[in-house]
């Protein structure tokens, strides 16, 4: 009963198989491997973006921070949600990589910015006045940090606001495959056609060992990105082992298959939770992550039974008090475990 | 005939096997995996350092730069050889991670600093005078960037100079196993007992897919290192896959076995080259890397025959002119390829 | 009728006189001038802090950022008001000097943080968890950015919260003299006795050409500060000209005399504004700065008559609509100008 | 007998007078003062550069570092002499302001780079290879750090090398007026016509209290420079006091008058030293700074008699041993003092 995070589960067997196959003989290092050429072609095909610049790194924080550093000057602000991963979960990586840019936080109910809130925050930043930081990129996340998914119209609306101010748009797609499965639009529609300039395309949370792709639809910044990646220690010498993972991920749409499995497991869990009077959903769960609340006593009981998940508060206290929980399903989640967990909560 | 680099070869089968085995079920993320606990214990045992703080990252540049940033203030100088990897091959990673420290270069024949040259360079840095940068860590490399290996006395001598000035000492051990095999001393003797405070313990060039260990013999800086690692995007969520590689590496001394294989292959190559009048060795090859020179025409001939290695200059030009070459043997090098290559050079 | 800012007025004649007198013959450079020794003694006397480390720089942004960089690690957060000068008016100087620290904003009605809001914001910062930035210094401002002044109890309360978490406290005292005159407590009571660790002691806005003093009550960080000051280009070679200004400022309490004059001019203006039905005060004006609102038409009329002040919005629009204004009095403000201005607003 | 530095002497009376006159009434802050408009016009006239972007800061280190940060990317190298002020005397300011660029040192006999040495150092920097830092600006200094002055041909030669590689050129002109007087060419010939892109135009060492001008002949970088200046705390609110100094400096060629006085005093001192058998000149003194050597005993004797200068080594030791000295003349040096000093050395 593992609902702690989609970064705790195993890698997909096909990915492990690809790693094994990539381990024959010699390869050119530092991204000159044949697998990387295939990854580049495949990502350009998947995103219908023949000009895109494509790079691989091993962590999501590196991918986000390197893209933002490339799109942002040190004296600019990055506009993002008040609960954005780049704000709350990267120990200041964007500030470090950009050379001290500021994150300008935008109100975001259910972790989704509204065009009005974004516009208001941008307007508050005096462009052309030397005393304050200047306007920089807008960074969106989908699947959001609360499990919601931007609709195509929402993405277009937010990117449209950025374009009104001539600001670049970054998409943190650590769970982009899960968002795609929910939104049911093409990768191109959900990104560059909607006005997004660069994407952190996640693989680690969706069946890889640890690979994310940085995709720039305009290759103008490609060389700068390569230098920033090397300078920050994120260029792998034995790069083939990153390439092989990403190539397997995108072959025969494995990435969508694993995302569908995770979202389906989550939907099953949501349906079960909805049926329980003493469980409240805190945000609409639209992909593979649930924010909910149930009595503290049940937190303890479930954990004693072996369930793993984040309790959003202390476990000791009044049994009947409602306590928040975060539940995440990964591609390998089993119906059996889900039903066992629901049975415990239902008891 | 692959002599381009020890980062171009395959990972060792036992390492791949360990990766497979680590891929069962769920693990705690971010270094809380059971494999990491075992790695920590094993490294402390290998280095006879029960207090050591041990962390894993995926690249050597990250390992070096994170250790240096932890040992160095932004207004200090890092003393290193004029051909140090941190100076020439990391695109300014030390400057980036430290917040703008300066690398103070020390003359180093055969890439080995002398105590006199180090002392002179430190003396040139006015400590306590606000106008210049202050004295910071000393960074040594062994196997050096020219294929030589510091003797135990040399390490003690250089670390002793640093201690005279109360400066911390970092060892870039990207090829530490190869150096150990040559020097034939214990890891403890070659590091903390010689006066070294922190080591970048390499695995990538010696049979892993991509893992290096940062080892601090004094754990005082442990928490700062963890924050710097996270902040720079080098903390892996699915950390088990780093741990499993390093654990396999240190089990049954696989790391020494692969290093011995690489050094033996190199020795065979050296013996063959010495027998050829038209080949000059440029530095004493003491581990698995050779700097030599032979006529340009032979460079072309060897490459046409499929040999891979770095020519230290342009391939087009006078056939008879001596042209430098770098030849590196990895753990998987075969006698057959070595002999084929020697035959071509001998023809 | 100059109410734009207290950085637009002239320097005090006694300060100019001191500059002239300091211009005789030679002096040791870089702060070794005799005037600086006298400044150090005088500030230690004024603050009853015989151990204090004292340094001079030429701008308030440099003083704040250098102190914060000395008190804060790159991976920490600085807790400050949502309208703090360091957040809104320094183009990211704190982020630049600290190497990418994050400013964590605290709700602050009338620009004054409450202990509850500060505590809540600190609690939201997970100390000891590697994913987020860590807790760093608390930065207060008095006179605040909205013209209010913390009472001694308020300062003690906020510093007390910081001490509960073992966090250092910085005071942005760009208008510290004006605050002292209002609060009517000793410099020691308003700073280190209340729990403040370092002060930016402003002079520029209160009669100097351009000098601020960085005062650390604990000299532990002195040498680091000196290196940071030099490294950021803020150490003056002909330092005597900074020293002479600050010495004149603190001689015969000139600093309090000029602050009293500014506050008195402001009180006269406030009294006049209160008498006008169509003028609203937006924050309680407690020193030498007023935030108020009056009909847009009067903004235009006053400016046409030569009044200088900041209108907090566009001048073109409905005449009758209330429009915000910031009015600041400096030490040289004249009753005549104040009364002329009030007459215009009253018409 | 003050030969310690040209930053120890007084400001010129005309400059003090201008400060007094600028202290009447109110001025727009932050560089919007009328004096600054006049400074901008005057510098454009002096340099025959009607498009030039002109900014004032208070220190030479800030001027150099801000210009370099504007011309250099964090992953690039700044090419400069091994004894450049930016390398030896600014505590790493260029590294701090650039975000971690590397200073690549060029051999420079008499502190003057040769085109051959510069070209060789640039060639050693692999452009387009991601492993090393990339080629960035070339930074020259004249008057050099050893008192020599580049001829017009030398400046053209070095700038020409930079242009061959398409690299921008910065001139550290802390003593530019002294160099102009020696070289006897126009400011335009010695800068942009010779291929220099930006100049740090010094005033502090030549009769001002503390002002340097950053001059960009191509205004493309103007706004970036303004943001960097503000962000680093170098934008003065009461800017008029910087403007007034620089305006007086450039009025009626006061800057050349003071430089001529300093150079003449130095020439008198050089003539006297040449007449003394036991004094050796270490570098050709071509402006207002002398590097020489004379017996240690005379160092002590001169200092006991009140002479101030830097001895380049310890004062205690063998009296007869030759010990280096640095002697600098400022605009206010008197023949009487010079002759007194020569008499002591001659005795």
TrEMBL record, chains A, B, C, D:
Cofactors, names only: pyridoxal 5'-phosphate
Domain annotation Aromatic amino acid beta-eliminating lyase/threonine aldolase: ranges: 3-292
Example of a GO biological process term: amino acid metabolic process
UniProtKB keywords: Pyridoxal phosphate
GO molecular function, one term: lyase activity
Source organism superkingdom: Bacteria
Keyword Cell division among UniProt keywords: no
Subunit field text: Homotetramer.
UniProt record similarity statement: Belongs to the threonine aldolase family.
Protein name listed in UniProt: L-threonine aldolase
Lineage, top ranks: Bacteria, Pseudomonadati, Pseudomonadota, Alphaproteobacteria, Rhodobacterales
